[in-house]
């Protein structure tokens, strides 16, 4: 975990309202699939937590949705050649056990980006079955990366590309045939809740990556907590963002 | 080479820079980023006798130049701190235990438990995010004096810092009340109560509706309050409120602070505190200041 100043290589819109930011540093530490970075935005007191999409040696790519003033500033202020302060790597990340060969990944919205880091990390060593949900055809992006999975199903709410319906629905239709050893998911809360309900009693481990407004990003300030089903809180930034689905209240 | 050491209630700090309560946990996480023994002291997350779960999320919001938080004193309880964090933290630097309670007697109990174990106790009578205790005890001067006296009576060997709320009629009057109650030091300011609304949903951003405002935007108010308190009491002062750089720390010291706390800036820049320590040395050297403590209270106000 360290704070370093990186150089922006690219910061461009890859789908409507979705940006891909790539930066590089000679001091870039190793980053695992599912970890995140805190990105400083000039003039804003809070850094923005963004999941890692691609880690390639000295280069790191994160993708974000334009949501408010901060992300708009991030998209306009940091063009190629600019310096950007980043705190990384943060959080526990996704972990796939040696004996888990068939890995299903279920993503929705900007939740697909940390799952791309999973595809990149495990495409060679595991069988990856990817179910990626988008609002519509215009929102679909990073298909080239997703196609490295053994099987890929793109789902859109309106059916304008691929499967008509949600990523969870598409995954559950295939569940009996695929019989995954483990399921990794990231997406909006309603999606994660639907997945939790659908997977109840199936005896397959499911890990979800959560999102929360953060302060420090390193586990000190206790701003980004989630409720544990057994009582008490966990810190999304430090104990997560990835949790076993039964461990957390969604 | 500037002498950055400061004396606070007879306790020497290697420099006047202290991360503020609630932004730094018990120091372990930031110690993964830099060696926190470079800090003058660490002020802990607010501690209570029993563990507390705190408020629902979202607990943080941002507005221009400031943030709002409503964590609500989530902490593992004082016993957990003493057993698991304090022994390690003491090997690093001076320890200020920030404490809170539901009622004055709880402040007495937690102070008695920490007496002699930590370098300072900082009384949190100014947290705006909990329903009882916290700020309700910190508004009226007579309550400030009462809870200070109870805490002071429980502390036989550890100096007592009273942290003041800015959400009051007269911060100078409350500082005098703390002095009257036996405080050894005053720290200020805690956060200003505020609110941020998401205009799309017409709902407050914070689950708690309101929260404490901190960050660079509050600095001039905090400097003014430190100045007022320095004129009102003889006690040493720890100043805080929007410090982002060494020059801000110098400003607080000139206003009357013997040491400073840095809070929100730790979120913007995890290395903020060590940068401020380094910057203070450079500023003093460039300005012919041999000892940083020479700066305290040197503001020359206009007639």
Give a short summary of the structure:
Chain A is of the alpha/beta class and 250 residues long.
Which labels suit this protein?
heterodimer; A: 250 residues; alpha/beta; Elongation Factor Tu (Ef-tu), domain 3; Rossmann fold; 2 domains; 7-stranded mixed sheet; 6-stranded antiparallel beta barrel; 19% helix; globular; B: 303 residues; TIM Barrel; 8-stranded parallel sheet; 9 helices; 16 strands; 32% helix; 19% strand
Order of helices and strands of chain B: EEEHEEEHEHEHEHEEEEEHEHEHH
Global outline of chain B: globular
Work out the helix count of chain B.
9
The CATH superfamily name of chain B is: Aldolase class I
Any chance you could write out the topology, listing elements then pairs?
The complex is a heterodimer of chains A (250) and B (303).
Chain A: E1 2-15, E2 18-24, E3 36-39, E4 48-56, E5 59-65, H1 69-77, E6 83-90, E7 102-108, H2 112-122, E8 127-134, H3 143-146, E9 151-156, E10 163-164, H4 167-178, E11 182-186, H5 189-199, E12 206-209, E13 225-227, E14 233-235, E15 242-244
Parallel strand pairs in A: 7-8, 7-11, 8-9, 9-10, 11-12
Antiparallel strand pairs in A: 1-2, 1-6, 2-5, 3-4, 3-6, 4-5, 12-15, 13-14
Chain B: E1 6-8, E2 11-13, E3 17-19, H1 28-31, E4 41-43, E5 60-63, E6 66-69, H2 78-90, E7 94-99, H3 104-114, E8 120-124, H4 141-154, E9 160-163, H5 171-181, E10 185-188, E11 192-195, E12 197-198, E13 203-204, E14 210-214, H6 219-232, E15 237-239, H7 246-255, E16 259-262, H8 265-268, H9 272-286
Parallel strand pairs in B: 3-16, 4-7, 7-8, 8-9, 9-10, 10-15, 15-16
Antiparallel strand pairs in B: 1-2, 5-6, 6-14, 11-14, 12-13
Helix pairs in contact in B: 3-4, 4-5, 5-6, 6-7, 7-9
Structural features, described:
With 250 residues, chain A is α/β, with parallel strands linked by helices. Chain A is 19% helix and 36% strand. Chain A folds into 2 domains: 89 residues, Beta Barrel (Elongation Factor Tu (Ef-tu), domain 3), CATH 2.40.30; 108 residues, Rossmann fold (3-Layer(aba) Sandwich), CATH 3.40.50. Chain B contains 9 helices and 16 strands. In chain B, helix 7 links the parallel strand 15 and strand 16. The mean pLDDT of chain B is 95. Classes of the chains: A alpha/beta (250), B alpha/beta (303). Chains A and B meet through loops of A and helix 1, strand 5, strand 6 and helix 8 of B.
């Amino acid at each position: 975990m360290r704070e370093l100043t990186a150089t922006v290589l690219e910061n461009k819109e890859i789908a409507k309202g979705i940006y891909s930011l790539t930066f590089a540093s000679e001091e870039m530490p190793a980053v695992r699939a599912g970890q995140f970075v805190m990105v400083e935005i000039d003039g804003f007191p809070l850094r923005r937590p963004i999941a890692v999409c691609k880690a390639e040696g000295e280069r790191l790519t994160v993708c974000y949705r334009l949501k408010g003033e901060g992300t708009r500033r991030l998209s306009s202020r940091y063009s190629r050649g600019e310096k950007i302060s980043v705190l990384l790597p943060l959080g526990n990340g996704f972990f796939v056990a040696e004996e888990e060969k068939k890995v299903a990944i279920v993503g929705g919205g900007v939740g697909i980006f940390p799952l791309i880091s999973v595809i990149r990390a495990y495409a060679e060593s595991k069988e990856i079955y990817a179910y990626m949900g988008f609002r519509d055809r215009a929102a679909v992006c990073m298909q080239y990366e997703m196609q490295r999975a053994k099987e890929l199903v793109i789902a859109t709410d309106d059916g304008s590309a691929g499967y008509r319906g949600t990523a969870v629905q598409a995954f559950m239709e295939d569940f009996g045939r695929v019989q995954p050893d483990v399921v990794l998911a990231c997406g909006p809360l309603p999606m994660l809740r639907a997945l939790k309900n659908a997977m109840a009693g199936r005896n397959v481990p499911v890990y979800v990556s959560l999102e929360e407004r953060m302060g420090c990003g390193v586990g000190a300030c206790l701003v980004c907590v989630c409720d544990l089903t057994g009582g008490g809180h966990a810190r999304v930034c430090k104990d997560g963002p990835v949790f076993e689905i039964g461990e957390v209240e969604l | 080479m500037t002498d950055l050491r400061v004396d606070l209630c007879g306790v020497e700090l290697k420099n006047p820079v202290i991360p503020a309560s609630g932004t730094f946990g018990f120091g372990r996480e930031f110690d993964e980023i830099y060696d926190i023994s470079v800090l003058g002291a660490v002020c802990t997350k607010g501690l209570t006798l029993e563990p507390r779960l705190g408020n629902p999320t979202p607990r943080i919001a941002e507005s221009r130049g400031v943030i709002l938080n409503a964590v609500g004193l989530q902490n593992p309880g004082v016993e957990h701190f003493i057993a698991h964090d304090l022994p390690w933290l003491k090997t690093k630097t001076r320890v200020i235990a920030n404490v809170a309670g539901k009622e004055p007697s709880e402040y007495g109990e937690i102070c008695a438990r920490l007496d002699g174990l930590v370098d300072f106790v900082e009384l949190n009578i100014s947290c705006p995010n909990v329903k009882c205790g916290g700020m309700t005890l910190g508004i009226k001067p007579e309550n400030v004096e009462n809870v200070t006296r109870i805490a002071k009576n429980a502390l036989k060997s550890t100096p007592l810092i009273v942290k003041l709320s800015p959400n009051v009629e007269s911060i100078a009057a409350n500082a005098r009340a703390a002095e009257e109650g036996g405080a050894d030091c005053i720290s200020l300011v805690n956060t200003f109560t505020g609110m941020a609304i998401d205009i799309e949903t017409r709902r407050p951003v914070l689950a708690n509706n309101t929260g404490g405002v901190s960050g660079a935007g509050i600095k001039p108010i905090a400097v003014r309050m430190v100045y007022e308190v320095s004129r009102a009491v003889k006690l040493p002062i720890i100043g805080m409120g929007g410090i982002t750089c060494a020059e801000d720390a110098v400003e607080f010291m000139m206003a009357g602070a013997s040491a400073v706390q840095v809070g929100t800036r730790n979120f913007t820049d995890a290395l903020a505190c060590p940068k401020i320590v380094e910057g203070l040395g450079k500023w003093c050297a460039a300005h012919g200041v041999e000892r940083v403590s020479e700066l305290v209270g040197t503001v020359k106000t206009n007639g």
